[in-house]
Structure formats: structure tokens, C-alpha cells
Write a structure and sequence with these properties.
With 198 residues, the protein is an all-alpha fold. The chain is built from six helices and no strands.
């Protein structure tokens, strides 16, 4: 979800503003019939749209949405549907709504930005862990190859030795190098498996 929000915030500003404006006008159209039946304050539904727009589209879109919703709330003042404001209390309500919604936009935008940054940091850490896992696997193969080369060199030297006790010592050395190669390779592979992968 956070990743998707980060992608949406990369959309052009005009697209994000158009979507937020469409949501506000849809809310207005939904609320007008309700206002005639049950008069009240239009701010709650507008506030939900403002917070949603802020979380999804960012701080700038949220602040523009606050301004638009404050303007649209004028339609719900007496006389209904008129742009004239007759009571000072209505102006105070609109101003108070705009200030509180603006403060909430700043707070929610900061929260969303922190979540997106944490998600990006988590992705970067996962990528780093995956790279370390690959490096450890390559190291395990390199260690095994180096020990195999040492064992092959000792085996070549052992072939040219005629003394049986010396040959036995060299064969034991070959076996010990082979065991060390298997152990080193297995230890590196265990560490690589413990590293989390995506």
C-alpha cells in the first residue's frame, strides 16, 4: 500500500489535483440532497476527502483541497445555495475549518512522508541483504575452488614421491584440505541462507 502511494505521488500534479477536485465535487453532489433533508455542517465529509487526498496525493494537493472545500462549504450556509454569507458565525466556522484542516494536512502529510521514507529504506536494506547473500555464495564457491586447487597441487606432488610414509602423509594432507574445503563452503552457505531475501 505504501509503495503504491509512493507511485501515485509521482503522477503529474494536475492529475492529482483533478482527482482530488473530482472527489470534492462528488462529495458536494452527494451532500446537497442530504442537506435539504438533514441540515448540518458540511465539514465532516469534506474533511475526510481532504485527509484522504493528503495521504494519497501529498501535502500540496491536500492544502489545495482544504481551500476548495472551504469555498464549497459556502453553498451550505443560509440561505441555502446562495454564495452570500449573512452571519458572522458562518465565516468563523469556515475559517476555523480551514485552519484546523490545514494543520491536519501538514501533520498527516508528514506522517505519510515518514512512512514512504521508511518503506524505501526497508527496500534498500532488503536489496543490500540480497547482495550480501549473493556475495557470500560466491565466496563459498571461491573458497571451495581454492581448497580444491591446493588439494590438486598436493596430489600432483604426492604422485612424484616414492617413499610410502611420505606418500601417506601427503594423502592425509589432501583429505584434511578436502574436509576444510567442505566445512568452509558449508559455513559460508549457511550464512548466506540466514540473510533474508525478497
Amino acid at each position: 500500500m505504501v509503495r503504491k502511494v509512493g507511485e501515485i505521488r509521482g503522477w503529474p500534479m494536475w492529475v492529482r489535483l483533478a482527482l482530488a477536485g473530482a472527489a470534492l465535487f462528488a462529495t458536494l453532489l452527494f451532500q446537497i440532497p442530504l442537506e435539504r433533508e438533514v441540515p448540518g455542517e458540511p465539514f465532516l465529509l469534506f474533511f475526510l476527502i481532504v485527509i484522504s487526498a493528503t495521504l494519497v496525493f501529498g501535502r500540496g494537493v491536500g492544502l489545495v483541497t482544504v481551500g476548495l472545500s472551504a469555498l464549497l462549504s459556502i453553498f451550505f450556509r443560509e440561505p441555502f445555495g446562495s454564495l452570500a454569507i449573512r452571519h458572522a458565525a458562518d465565516v468563523i466556522k469556515i475559517e476555523l475549518y480551514a485552519v484546523l484542516a490545514g494543520c491536519c494536512v501538514v501533520g498527516f502529510a508528514s506522517l505519510a512522508d515518514a512512512l514512504i521514507a521508511a518503506n524505501e529504506k526497508t527496500k534498500a536494506l532488503e536489496q543490500s541483504d540480497q547482495n550480501k547473500s549473493i556475495l557470500l555464495r560466491e565466496l563459498a564457491h571461491g573458497v571451495a575452488n581454492n581448497f580444491a586447487s591446493v588439494a590438486a597441487l598436493i596430489s600432483i606432488k604426492s604422485a612424484s614421491v616414492s617413499d610410502s610414509s611420505a606418500k601417506s602423509v601427503l594423502d592425509d594432507a589432501i583429505e584434511q584440505v578436502s574436509v576444510m574445503a567442505r566445512r568452509a563452503s558449508a559455513a559460508a552457505l549457511r550464512r548466506a541462507r540466514r540473510t533474508p531475501r525478497q
